[in-house]
Amino acid sequence: MDKVLMKGNEAIGAAAIKAGCKHFFGYPITPQNELPEFMSRELPKIDGVFVQAESEVAAINMIYGAAGTGARVMTSSSSPGIALKQEGISYLAGAELPCVIVNISRGGPGLGGIQPSQADYYQSTRGGGNGDYRHLVYAPATLQEAVDLTIEAFDIADYYRNPVIVLGDGMIGQMMEPVEFKEPKKRDLPDKDWTTTGTKRNRKPNIINSLALDPAELEKHNIKLDKKYKTIEEKEVRHEMYKMDNAEVVLVAYGTTSRIVKNAIDALEEEGISVGLIRPITLWPFPYKAFAEIPNTCKALLSVEMSMGQMIDDVKIANEGKLPVHFYGRSGGMIPTPEAIMEKVKEIWGGAK
Amino acid sequence: MLKDNRIRVIIGHYGSGKTEFSINYAIKLAKEEKNVALADLDVVNPYFRSREKHGLLKEHGVKVVSSYVKGSGSDLPAVSGDVLGPLQDKSCNVVLDVGGDSMGARTLGRYKDYFIEGEYDMFCVVNGNRIETQTLEGVINHITSIEGTTRARVTGLINNTHLLRATTVDQILKGQELCRRVSQATKIPIKYTAVVESLIHQLPENIEGTIMPIKMIMREAWM
């Protein structure tokens, strides 16, 4: 198929359908509205179901119900809407239900604003819901990557029986870029023998639940979940390295910010300053091991975010106290400029000599 | 030489490039005419609206009229009453940058009285790389539904077929072929071909309409 020009929100919707998603439950919020709008138009054409729920809380619980049938299901929202879904996400993880949740994030806290932001890093990677649960978080930086990761997210969700979040800031949802829809690589997925689709009197009833009143049973369940999360940490972590050879400062950035950082790195290179980038593609699991590959030439790390500084915590964990860790960020919907990032790097680079 | 009628309405599928065309057109127009206003009637998109560039447009002598609500932080479907000023001022050259699809074009219904034959042009921006306007039927559907909503006629086509920084001359020619077929079927002439500046010197001679060089004003260097 030829490349077409799509808006991020539409492209994610088209990718979900390509991945076999036939059921969408959601509630409108800017800047992700084109996604439910796209699904409301396209899903009926393939015998799917689109429901605009009465709230985000209702939508995530519809996801819980539909996922229990084994169908591929998706919901999407933006920051405060995702906050409302947190209870449901914890329940989905507890009941081991696969689903894909898209967060096209905006400025916060509270209702915040409609411009792009990355201030949901804690929410996505630490979880706003209760209990010992984890879920994979994909953070695409281009629309092609958003398409590819959305398609993959459905396989990952099914494979591990766990919710997966695709986190794009508002810019990823609203910008346009050429994309193509390649046939996805198929994973060997286990049979869905856990669904509640009727026993046909051939088996015992399956039960989908996140309630366990016996503490010993609940601990056993938590240990089982933890084992699964450890496997995800080991096998599904993903990152990109950019111009790391002889880098004197290494930047860490994801999503839209990583694109701006790359422009800054290229411009700094022309001025004779070697700077590299570690770009986490999965925010959880975070690519801690990538930091072991930072060259000896590196004098400092700089986390660049569209927030007041959240990912920097993981950067510090990964750094293990070895190098000074700096921060540059804009928040509230303001977007860092390549020039401002260059200034910050020069300040660190000058001071680090 | 932008010898179009005084009121220029720019419509099309959302994401077709209306705003980028409108801004480039208005800046070019302001080089030839004194009194140029651009009205941002986009009530569909929350990002990438021409009002974000009002400072730059002002520098080029283009007055921007948009929402009463200041700044880029609002997605209220509010259009300023000030739009009437340039429409009523017969000495003013107006560009109306309209939101996408027939949904976005609904704002135009309010200005029907000013869409008098010979006094306005309504240009449909066509990007043959947008999924819904890749075919003859797709483009004609868009034109029909937008004309129905606005109660005004499309007077010209703009071939704006592109893939942003990945655009090639072949893409532009593919879009031209599509626009030619639409033009044959609807009798609407191709008025402009919009081309990113870097490709202008590579264009063959058989380009339809006036070539409008496009600077990517809405798109930051890192995008």
From TrEMBL, chain A:
Keywords attached to this entry: Oxidoreductase
Domain Pyruvate:ferredoxin oxidoreductase core positions: 247-341
Keyword Transmembrane attached: no
Superkingdom assignment: Bacteria
Keyword Oxidoreductase: yes
CDD domains with a match to the protein in the record: TPP_PYR_PFOR_IOR-alpha_like
The protein's name: 3-methyl-2-oxobutanoate dehydrogenase subunit VorB
Species of the source: Alkaliphilus pronyensis
TrEMBL record, chain B:
Domain of life per record: Bacteria
Source species of the chain: Alkaliphilus pronyensis
Protein name, entry field: MinD/ParA family protein
SUPFAM superfamilies registered for this protein in UniProt: P-loop containing nucleoside triphosphate hydrolases
